[in-house]
Design brief:
Length: about 325
């Protein structure tokens, strides 16, 4: 649908660990919308967010929040109650996708390959390793590689893990333990019901953690990834199927690990991000650009999809 000039509230900031990234995403989106002639109200989310949205009375809300409570269904439920049209996925999808264990329960039975592992109480890991080393420990419901640790025989976390060592166990009461998958870090964006490209991420040191994602120069992006065609097709197929199975809307980004010594059997979906970053270093805008779509076009496409979904819901009602 062609996009008329609209009043769009850009919801950003909040109080999650990903606040700085959300502010960058939101400002980029706001400037892109203004460049296309839309009226933009920037809202740095606080506890009075419902009042601010009521006062703004926008035609549509661009949800540029990352992490809780903007990505976990809380804000989506509030906007549903307020009757607002908003970008990205809705309440139920957001609740599932932010939780790595719920995501596995929803997808693995449909043949989506994901790593094994289990939820552990943080106190457990101080007694014994939950899995054979090397393994990964990560928060159950955080994004952007926040608080991820790789526990190896050669690591400095102790054996068993020491409570005094810096890691996610110092910040979260429950963690997801997964086997470490050697090989390549891959990611695929989905937009408008279509998988875009596959990007390989090559951190210059360590692994693709929060700093590597959002610090310029710390990670090389190989886009499109220089991988076999069958792996490219598999990444795109899995990303699109996961997007559809979870009922996602707007843009999503699916992250993979691929053990290149095992071929297709070595490809695993790690998680699906329902509100991927829109910063200058973010992967969805980068893939869209390689597909010939400008940042401004990308932002407007996401707004357009939100409006189309809202219209479809009115017809159903």
């Amino acid at each position: 649908m062609s996009l008329p000039k609209l009043h769009i509230a850009v919801l950003m900031g909040g109080w999650s660990s990903e606040r700085p990234v959300s502010l960058m995403s939101g400002e980029g989106v706001a400037k892109a919308l203004e460049s296309r002639g839309h009226k933009v109200t920037r809202i740095d989310m606080g506890r009075d967010v419902a009042l601010k949205l009521t006062e703004a009375a926008p035609d549509v809300v661009f949800n540029a929040l990352h992490g809780s409570p903007g990505e976990d269904g809380t804000v989506q439920g509030m906007m549903d109650l307020m009757g607002l049209t908003y970008t990205h996925s809705g309440l139920a999808t957001s609740v599932i996708a932010i939780d790595k264990e719920l995501t596995k329960q929803a997808l693995v039975s449909y043949g989506i390959p994901m790593p094994g592992g289990r939820i552990v109480e943080t106190s457990e890991i101080y007694q014994a390793d939950p899995l054979a080393r090397p393994y990964v420990l990560k928060p159950v419901n955080e994004g952007s590689s926040v608080g991820v640790a790789i526990v190896t025989d050669e690591g400095n976390y102790g054996d068993p893990v020491s409570p005094s060592a810096e890691g996610p166990w110092q910040h979260f009461g429950r963690l997801l333990a997964e086997p470490f998958i050697r090989g390549k870090e891959l990611t695929t964006a989905v937009l408008g019901g279509k998988a875009l490209l596959v990007t390989e991420l090559k951190p210059k040191s360590g692994f693709y953690d929060f700093d590597a994602k959002y610090t310029d120069g710390m990670t090389d992006h190989i886009c499109p990834a220089e991988i076999p065609d069958e792996i490219t097709r598999a990444c795109k197929d899995i990303a699109l199927r996961a997007h559809q199975l979870l009922g996602c809307r707007g843009a999503t980004r699916s992250d993979f690990r691929w053990d290149d010594e095992r071929g297709l059997d070595g490809l695993y979906l790690l998680e699906i991000n329902t509100q991927p970053g829109m910063t200058p270093l973010s992967l969805v805008p980068e893939q869209a650009k390689h597909m010939g779509m400008s940042y401004e076009d990308l932002v407007e496409a996401m707004v357009s999809e939100a409006l189309e979904f809202a219209e479809a819901q009115k017809v159903k009602a």
